[in-house]
Structure to design on (107 residues):
């Protein structure tokens, strides 16, 4: 089981953490929502819970809870700028499809 981080995503995550001034890393998870069923959740991590799995890639810690890991195993976190839009992208080999707006996915 692994979560990986591209160079671009690592650079952006480090910038966010440095600007925040604290935090162990980034929490990656899923929540039930949207027209396809699941949506990605990214937030800062200050404490690791007992059921969390911690992955470190490109000097960034990614924390995933046990329930989310089932859906996220093998995911690569990327960051891209496209015109005026920029954001994290999730290259998830478990996703079977996404909704038209790209906000949710299914497995």
């Amino acid at each position: 089981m692994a979560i990986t981080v591209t160079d671009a995503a690592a650079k952006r995550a480090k910038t966010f953490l440095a600007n925040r001034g604290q935090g162990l890393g980034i929490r990656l998870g899923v929540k039930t929502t949207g027209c396809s069923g699941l949506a990605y959740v990214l937030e800062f991590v200050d404490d690791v819970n007992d059921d969390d799995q911690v992955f470190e890639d490109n000097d960034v810690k990614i924390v995933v809870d046990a329930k989310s890991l089932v859906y996220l195993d093998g995911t690569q976190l990327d960051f891209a700028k496209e015109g005026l839009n920029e954001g994290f992208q999730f290259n998830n080999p478990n996703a079977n499809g996404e909704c038209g707006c790209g906000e949710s996915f299914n497995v």
Remarks:
- The domain at 4-94 is CATH 2.60.300.12 (Hypothetical Protein Aq_1857; Chain: A;).
- The chain has one domain: 4-94.
- Residues 7-20 form the longest helix (14 residues).
- Helices lie at 7-20, 66-72.
